[in-house]
Amino acid sequence: MAVMQSHNAVGDLEERLAACAAHADEQGNALFFKKRPPTRDECRERVGWDECGRPITRAMRLGQQKHVLALECAREVLDELWPTPYSIEQRYRFYLNAGVVETISPEKEASIIARGCSEEFRGTIKPDLVLHADRNLLRAALTLDFKFPCPDTNTPQWTEYGENSPYAGLKQGSVYEKALGGKALLVSPGTGVNPP
Questions:
Q1: Which residue, among 119, 20, 138, has the nearest Cα to 79 in the 3D structure?
Q2: Rg of the chain (C-alpha set)
Q3: Cβ-contact 163, 193 below 8 angstroms
Q4: What does DSSP assign to residue 82?
């Protein structure tokens, strides 16, 4: 990080990731709204149901699609600008009281998803991007999450964990920092890269 900061690479990285968010937002909106942002009512519109019977809103569906676009772009940026390993959408199990974190393999995650509505993800976190300072894939120099507020007049913010979570009352960014170390930052089309 120190070497990168001395060469202003961190500023370049943040700028390029913010551009990824803006591009993903524009492309996602173009698919459904001819490049205009959706209205508050359109964001709330129910567009389906998940496998657990919970409603899926337009905001949720758009957010998923924009994340895919942003992460594709981020991979290209990180391949060019980040000299050490990074993780994209790596799921971790974090034991808050013990301060222990472990990875969950993509195969194990897929197996849990294939079994349907499962409580096995309780106590896990899944940041969008984890930039590692060295080869220790359980430690972060920087953790970033893309946020696509819907409507775009909403302020991007970390999700707060509910009462049934082992992280009840804490926000995502805070849990990421406790689990992985380093700073946790939001990346959003309207505001760029920001601290929690």
A1: 20
A2: 17
A3: no
A4: -
Residue 133 contacts by C-beta under 8 Å, 6 or more apart in sequence? 1, 84, 139, 140, 141, 182
Token pair of 188, please?
Answer: 């959003």
Task: Tell which residue, 81, 72, 71, 80, has the closest CA to residue 187.
Answer: 71
Q: What is the DSSP letter of 52?
A: T
Mean pLDDT by 10 residues, the chain (196 residues): 49 93 95 89 92 87 96 96 93 94 93 78 95 91 96 94 93 97 94 78
**What's residue 34's pLDDT?**
86
- Say how many CA atoms lie within 13 Å of 31 toward its Cβ: 12
DSSP state of 171: B
Cβ-count burial 88-119 (b if 16+ within 10 Å, e if not):
eebbbbbeeeeeebeebeeeebeebeeeeeee
Query: Which tokens in the block code for residue 137?
Result: 């894939």
pTM score:
0.89
Cα–Cα distance between 172 and 161 in angstroms, integer? 7
